[in-house]
Amino acid sequence: MQLIGADGGNLGEVSINDALLLAEEAGLDLVEISPNANPPVAKILDLGKLKYANQKKAAEARKNQKVIEIKEIKMRPNIDDHDYETKMKAVRRFFEEGDKVKLTLRFRGREMAHMELGMQLLNKVREETAAIAKVEAEPKLEGRQMMMVLAPR
Length: 153
Known about the structure:
Structural class: alpha/beta
Radius of gyration: 30 Å
Order of helices and strands: EEHEEHEHEHEE
Largest sheet: 4 strands, mixed
Distance between the termini: 50 Å
Strand content: 25-35%
C-alpha cells in the first residue's frame, strides 16, 4: 500500500504490517484514504481530529444553505387596487427572501361564471413579476380555486 506520513510526506509503498507499526510508533492511527486506488493509499493521522474536522465542515455547509419555502398569497378575482398593491408588495418581499410564491384565487358563488377575470388577474401578476420571477406552475383550476406557482429568478 502507498503510505503518507503524519507530516504529509510520501513514504512510498509499504506493507500493511509495516504501516501499522509506523502509525503505532507515532502514536497515531492508520487511515485508508483511497481504497480503490492501485495500490491503496493510507495516511498516518489522528482519526479523532479528522472526524472533528469533517463534522465542523458539515455543520458549516448546513449553516450556509437556504431552505426554500412556498409562501401562499390568497386573492379574490374582484380584488380592489389597493389590496392588490399590498399583496404584490408581499410577493416582491418573498422573492427577495428567495422563497417561492403560490398565488391562490378563490371563487365564490356566481364568480365561478367569470373564470376569465381570474385568468386576467393571474396574467397581470405574471407580467408585473416577469423581471424577478418565472412561472413554475401555470394557472390551473382545482375546484373553486385557481392556482399558480412563481419562483424567483
